[in-house]
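User: Structure tokens for this complex, please. No commentary.
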Amino acid sequence: MAIRAFRYWLLRYRRTWRGTVVISVANPLLFLVAIGSGLGQIVAPDTRALGGVSYLAFFAPGILAAAAMQNGLVESAFPVSWGRRPGGSYPVAVATPLEPSDLLHGHALFMAVRVTMSAAAFLAVMVALGAARSAMVLLALPAAALTAMAFALPAAAWAVTLSDVEPVGRVYKWVVMPLYLFSGTFFAVAQLPEALRPVVYVTPLWHGVDLCRSLSLGTATWAGSLGHVAYLTAMGAAGYLLARRNYRRHLHA
Amino acid sequence: MHLIVVRHLWVLRRGRPWGLLVDGIFEPFLYLLSIGIGVGQLVVAGPETSRYAAFVAPALLATAAMNSAVNETTGSFWFRVRFEKVYDAIVTTPMRVGDIAAGEIAASVLRSGLSSTCFLAVITALGMVRSWWALLAVPAAVLVAFAFSAAGLAVATLMRDFHHHQYLQLCMLPMFLFATTFFPLSLYPRPLQPVVAALPLYQSIELIRGLTTGALGAGTLAAVAYLAAMGGAGWWVAHRRLGRMLLT
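Assistant:
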């Protein structure tokens, strides 16, 4: 039954994909070209803080993870909060034999497909620009998808409880933007004052950024990567369990 | 015309006016910290770090003025004219279409000018302003806000559907990233330089950067003329199209 819900989102996507291309693909690519290639030209050649690689090679995997987070939320928080309003697709679908958990599974599957597509497009450009340093960069695709879902599932759990889309915009501005700009995406965490670094290390986006970056630069270690994967998986799993409970409570009221 | 401004202030009273200022300067401030100071450390190592931040800060001021102006006239104005039909009622009063256009632009400029002034105060406090000419950056930001408010109003009359906002973003985002916000014009390949220089945001950044760094020249006057012409043209188009839309 979950496949039916999935097919609904797929059908819808066939009608609306043009608008989503702008935010999910064009946005990170423009940042890659402008900041990575443009600003990267004036970054001093002495890049010890970046681990001795060019700014583009440092920045590209970071923005890959940051864009994955953004896409995970765009595919989850906005459509879920919009879909659960009276007359939206969720209340209509639960009036049929579909269960709330079917809606969650189908929609989550669609989110996973979408974020993987966007990440793949970005990764292709990144490799074409020569920003990847290792063949392990291929593993950055599942890593980016995992990062996206680690944000998308908790966001779905939260968004299904909302009665209005407005708080989503606020969270975007006050939570997502700071994460985007300060999780080691644009500059190295090592540049921050000592006291602030632990704060960054506990934020989820940093784990996604560091995972993608170490894979792209070929500096990944088993211990580090598994630690990042475990953190992100735990976050996604917690989000999933919460979402299942919230979907049942709010859609079968 | 002033009645439209009064209406805006009246609507604002129900919200929290101070939230407006925080809203307006929060995002440019984050970019300033992250790219201006964070990436700036990589651009010029050592005690010269603040030089790059002083380069980025006025560009973010211009961008903030642009974003605030465009969001106000395309986003909320578009919603009012297409869905809430506020102006259909207003044109049946003694107010005319010209009053609506001028009032909307004035309200948007007021809002954008206020948040720009606050942002200017922040970057001045952080020591990123290098010249007394920066006092003129407030009227300059108001001019930028006027140019983009009027242009935004003209664009808003052309938009029919929600997804047209996405196309607008597709113009605004590249402009934000490429109009010498983060790196100078000289880094572009020579054939691309005139294209970048023709962008309205580039002219706004030139104007405000010239004032905050004290590097003024003929380009500054050209930028003033460019922005004034853009605002005037936008106003004229918006006035004409709005008149047709509201059937007066």
